[in-house]
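quick q for whoever's on today - can somebody do inverse folding on this one?? i tried earlier but teh output was garbage lol. tokens:
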């Protein structure tokens, strides 16, 4: 019968040999810590600029493309970097005797860094996850065209608060789907070429409704 030291040495050797196998097995059952989500959806907003009477200058509903990278800090916490781009048609409404005037050729960019809290709805790897996040970044608009005979060529970048909430649905270890509603809150600067009309910037909400595919790295 093997002596106690011999049995001890055998146990240590077995533990050392099995550790890489156990680590590999565990790692294959954990979601990758870095996830990239690529998708799109629709954008809608309130009036970015207002003027005398009922004069308002805002963008219409538009398709938006979105990209985000999330880095897991914990199973329930992640840092998320995101960007979005849209090309809406802007409209000046409330114009006396005319009503509404369109200005095509506008662009919107958004970017932010956020902290996301995640709540898995189960212990399994493929359990759905609900989340909410808060962050900060910037909103940038660019306008170019002619409005009421006035040439408009304007762009500005403003700080923005970014709030979001959604639902993650893992399909495999490295692939999943995500839906999210996101609100960028920004106070826009006045459009220089429309100051003559009394148009001034105001705080507005821009809501993005997104569906994305998630890929683990």
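ok took a stab at it. sequence:
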């Amino acid at each position: 019968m093997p002596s106690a030291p011999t049995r001890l040495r055998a146990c240590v050797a077995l533990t050392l040999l099995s550790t890489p196998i156990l680590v590999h097995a565990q790692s294959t059952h954990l979601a990758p810590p870095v996830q990239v989500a690529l998708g799109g959806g629709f954008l809608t907003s309130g009036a970015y600029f207002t003027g005398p009477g009922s004069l308002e200058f805002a963008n219409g509903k538009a398709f938006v493309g979105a990209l985000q990278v999330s880095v897991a800090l914990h199973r329930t916490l992640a840092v998320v970097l995101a960007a979005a781009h849209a090309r809406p048609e802007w409209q000046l409404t409330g114009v006396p005797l005319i009503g509404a005037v369109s200005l095509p050729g506008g662009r919107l960019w958004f970017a932010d860094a956020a902290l996301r809290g995640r709540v898995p709805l189960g212990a399994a790897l493929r359990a759905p996850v609900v989340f909410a996040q808060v962050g900060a970044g910037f909103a940038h608009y660019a306008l170019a065209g002619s409005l009421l005979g006035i040439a408009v060529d304007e762009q500005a970048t403003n700080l923005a608060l970014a709030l979001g909430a959604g639902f993650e649905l893992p399909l495999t270890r490295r692939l999943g789907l995500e839906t999210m509603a996101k609100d960028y809150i920004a106070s826009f600067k006045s459009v220089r070429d429309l100051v003559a009309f009394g148009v001034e910037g105001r705080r507005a909400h821009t809501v993005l409704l997104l569906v994305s595919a998630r890929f683990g790295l």
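fwiw Residues 1-30 form one domain. also The chain is about 10% helix and 60% strand. so keep that in mind when u check it
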